[in-house]
Amino acid sequence: MQIFVNGKKIQLPVDGLSVMGLVVHMQLVGKRIAIERNGDILPRSQFDQVFLRDGDKLEIVGAVGGG
Amino acid sequence: MSDTLAIAGKNYASRLLVGTGKYKDFTETRAAIDASGAEIVTVAIRRTNIGQDVSTPSLLDYLPPSEFTYLPNTAGCYSAEDAVRTLRLARELLDDHRLVKLEVLGDPNTLYPNVTETLAAAKTLVKEGFEVMVYTSDDPIIAKQLEDIGCVAVMPLASLIGSGMGILNPWNLQIIIESANIPVLVDAGVGCASDAAIAMELGCAGVLMNTAIAAARDPVMMAGAMKKAIEAGRESFLAGRMAKKLYSATPSSPTTGMIG
Q1: CB distance B94–A63 less than 8 Å?
Q2: In the record, which residues are listed under signal peptide (chain A) (predicted)?
Q3: Assembly ipTM
């Protein structure tokens, strides 16, 4: 299964991975992040209930220094 | 001291708001912000670095949200749509945090704001329950329109972002301040402490700056200078300056009891 994360193509080894599964896979557990899936905000509380589909486009963001 | 800055129903002791960009490292960021006394700090929302070392520290480790009020911004956005999208993500990122800084740019060279896109984004954000502090040009009519939309603070530029040119049009700022019923903060263009003091003497409720501190030779010392300038400028404004006159026939020392 192939998805896009922050504009990069990512090949996932298994199908039916949850968003939480992806967060674990990307070693982002414990990091303060927000995720948008196909243009919609995905609340953190739903990470383990939402399953990724082939071609999904995700944006994973965090806070950085800025003025 | 009861002279606090009230924004969206919350009171802040400091009238200096600072950005967190352009510092050498997070240690310097933290030291400068501590020296500035700022309680509200702006942050940008950016894509997480996928595949980076998980132990890499983040800005939030150095500036915990428990100690500061975050003001997520829309820096780098050139459309209302992108700005709204960014702040929706920020709201989720920061646990339903509503206080935000809206800025929509119109030109990558000057970073001049695009006021029509800013107005459109402000409308959407206010409708969605955001508390919008809005960066804009020093056009008094646009500033009033942003207030009417429901923004919680209007933040006209003193001069262009990162220019350090200081306050180029104090007259427009004065018109904005006189007609506003919400806090007016100068955002962008301040270069040195005297610029910040002048902004406060004009009657600004506060000043937001980043480059003036981060690009100083000694950012931590400049942060302290800005803190003092903001306080001095505010007190000078509240105290009420003497009237200006070309000359005065009233010397400060007595005219009687002269020797000889």
Answers
A1: yes
A2: none
A3: 0.92
